[in-house]
Amino acid sequence: LQLAESGGGLVQPGGSLTLSCVASGDTPDHTTINWWRQVPGKEREGVACIDSDGRDAYYAESVKGRFTISRDSTKNTAYLQINPLKPEDTGVYYCASGVDWTTAEEMCHWPAYEYDAWGQGTQVTVSS
User: Fold this and answer.
1) What is the DSSP-derived secondary structure letter of residue 104?
2) How far is CA 69 from the centre of its chain?
3) What are the tens digits of pLDDT across the range 45-73?
4) What is the spatial distance between Cα 14 and Cα 126, in angstroms, rounded to a whole number?
5) pLDDT reading at 29 higher than 90
6) Which residue from 102, 107, 83, 101 is spatially nearest to 12, judged by alpha carbons?
7) C-alpha–C-alpha distance, residues 92 and 80, integer Å
């Protein structure tokens, strides 16, 4: 399984972005794709996680109400909509895939090795 993110860029505060993550290759049943980010000076954190059925979603407190995770299974693509963007959202955003044997909240706190695959990351810079 391979993942590839896209959609990052330079955006002004208050703007919006939609990040995409395309999965290719074989995926086990109950595989889900979640979103993590690494901001300068901090550890990578899970910001938006969802189970494979799309019924259980979790958002980090810092992004609640502004981030929306979704998935189009027909396209093997996951999305992260961000609106409005804040300067503190600046960082590298990664998608990660794994089998959802726990809750979405727990998946957002997994160690990196629990995920089966990671994308290469896409840079998001929020600045005026």
Assistant:
1) H
2) 7
3) 999 999 998 899 999 999 999 999 999 88
4) 9
5) no
6) 83
7) 13
